[in-house]
Amino acid sequence: MALVEIRDVYKSFQRDTQRIDVFTGLTLDIEPGSFTALMGPSGSGKSTLLNLIAGLDKPTRGTVRVGGAAVSDMSAGQLAAWRASNIGFVFQSFNLLPVLTAYQNVELPLLLTRLSGKERNDRVKLALDVVGLADRADHYPRQLSGGQEQRTAIARAIVADPTVMLLDEPTGQLDAKSSQEVLALLQRLNSEFNKTIIIVTHDAHAAERAKMVLHLEKGDLIEKPRATAAAMR
Amino acid sequence: MKYLRLVLANLGRHKLRTVLTILSVALALFLFASLRSVTTTLAATAQFGGARRLVTTNATGLVFPLPLAYGNRIKALPGVTGLSWANWFGGKYGDGKRFFANFAVDAESYLKIYPEIVLPADQRNAFLKDRTGALIGKRLLSQFGWKLGQNVTLQGTIFPGDWTFTVDGVYTPTDPAIGDDVLIFHHDYFDERIGRAGIAGWYIVEIDDVSHAPAVAKSIDDLFRNSSSPTKTGTEREFQATFATMWGNVSFLMSTIGLAVVFAILLVTANAMMMSARERTGEIAVLKTIGFSDRLLFALVMVEAGVMALTGAVLGLGGAKLFYPAINFNGLGFLPGFTVAPSTLIIGALVAIGLMLASGLAPALRAARLPIVQALRHVE
């Protein structure tokens, strides 16, 4: 059974008097433990698809199910609680809270759980250790490099052990070296910890790390094997 | 408690702005407490007065005296059990910058009719025997560093000349409305110095029964209705109220200024909170993406507003409560017993809660209703 099931999804936006159809009957399955890259030109609906899976946005029509839960039917309150335990989201611009240390940023999702202070501490330390930033726990985002910030954001995304990790252009603001570090980390999370990862990217290097590459073109989906993705460079 | 660190971190984001906002709330509530305390102190003074004491003044106005000869005629009326009289003197001491009330009284009857004026028996006797003696409230001792037995010279303003008195006694009032910074001296000496003019500023009339007050007052006023100086008699409370109503417009002004200041600060605080929330649009969207619910974010923003408003309230109201007793404030003698009443603290706390709601509600609602996707597009 697929972890992410998208069935006959329509999504349209209204811009002034114009209606923009992003998806017109999109259907897609993503298996648990997969590492999927979503590629495509700007405006093709990559981020919109990610938002639908994360429950940040709702389809105009159709259903989105993640781990058996009908995300598209949930209320705002149900979605918030569901996201807290099922979704690990990583943004292009890291989006760490500047007033919190790396440790405190990573701890944020755990504040929404019933874990004790000690349990939270153990989980945060483990997450920071996994991303290789155990020694940067007390640093504020302004004291970290871009790569370190993004790794902190990844630690924040994995700390609550979510069902699926969604990453929107995670290497978009990183230099080549930091990009490679982040991608290697994602690959490790997928292979070693069996995390299901869906990554939106323009970067063919990033897509190379994925097991599956989905190409979106004007809302239509073209599945490509990894070798093809490499050739797209 | 686990969210406290997040709240404090947000408050510490712009430390100077947070501190200035808290200080502005504190200042607003300090001013509110101070101005309201003027009003409540005046109102409390107006409530002073023994139920069995009436005051007779000139019907034309308080500044016009009555003949001293009225005393015996009033005393002879049925229902009158005691009588005393006093005259405003208005002398100043030194450079006159530190004002205190001083008036001439018929000493023996005055002390008898006012049991609220308490002093040691030997000092009382010394004062009664000394024609140029004076009694002072205990505050004047510390205010001017006077000592018992010392000669004190006042410069007359209404009644010119240097008036020297010996401090024979120091009293402590049992009712704060009496004032502990008043100097009283013998009316007889006063009358002699002004050439036996035979005047009294007002009479204090003690009656046998509270229920007889209207009848006795009427009989006094009827007695002098057709004389050159008709009288106006009322209860002592009414008499005090006439003093208080002299402040009537000032009280209104103070209440108005107090409210205006609080309202102005409210706008400043609300603006600071709105600005703070607007700056964090992206962060709020990120927190929502992580799983923070609308309700939780609403609560967190309200708690931030609450911490600022209530810290300001503690500083402002607590400051006012401690500051005035510390400096022995009595409004240059016009506000005896000046104190920040518990009711003022309660109203101040309610104002602070109102401030929290007014300044926190809009940004909190904004945070709760923020559409995630649009907000993320704004920061991504």
Strand content of chain B: 15-25%
Report the sheet with the most strands of chain B, covering strand number, pairing sense and barrel closure.
11 strands, mixed
Largest contact between protein chains? A-B, 30 and 26 residues
* Gyration radius of chain B, rounded: 29 Å
Number of strands of chain A: 10
Distance between the termini of chain A: 33 Å
CATH superfamily of chain A: P-loop containing nucleotide triphosphate hydrolases
Pick out the low-confidence regions of chain B. none
Can you identify the CATH class of chain A?
Answer: Alpha Beta
* Number of H/I helices of chain B: 14
How many β-strand stretches of chain B? 13
The succession of helices and strands of chain B, N to C, reads HHEEHEEEHEHEHEEEHEEHEHHHHHH
Total number of domains of chain B:
2
Description:
The complex is a heterodimer of chains A (233) and B (380). Chain A has helices at 46-54, 76-86, 102-111, 117-130, 146-158, 176-193, 204-209, 226-231; strands at 4-15, 18-30, 35-39, 61-66, 69-70, 87-90, 164-168, 196-200, 212-217, 220-224. Chain A has 233 residues and is an alpha/beta fold. Chain A has one domain: Rossmann fold (3-Layer(aba) Sandwich), CATH 3.40.50. Chain A has a six-stranded mixed beta sheet, sandwiched between helices. A four-stranded antiparallel beta sheet of chain A has the order 2-1-4-5, covered by helices on one side. In chain A, strand 7, helix 6 and strand 8 form a beta-alpha-beta unit. Residues 227-233 of chain A have low confidence and may be disordered. With 380 residues, chain B is of the alpha+beta class. Chain B folds into two domains: 4-45 and 248-379, no CATH class; 65-228, no CATH class. Helix content of chain B is 55%, strand content 17%. Chain B has helices spanning 4-11, 15-46, 70-75, 107-113, 121-129, 138-144, 187-193, 213-223, 236-246, 248-279, 281-290, 294-326, 342-369, 372-379; strands at residues 53-58, 66-67, 80-88, 92-93, 101-105, 117-118, 133-137, 151-155, 162-173, 182-186, 199-200, 202-207, 231-235. In chain B, the strands form two sheets. In chain B, strands 1, 3, 4, 5, 6, 7, 8, 9, 10, 12 and 13 form an eleven-stranded mixed beta sheet that branches. In chain B, strand 8 and strand 9 form a beta hairpin. Chain B is elongated, with a radius of gyration of 29 Å. The two termini of chain B are 31 Å apart. The mean pLDDT of chain B is 87. The interface between A and B is medium-sized, with 30 and 26 residues.
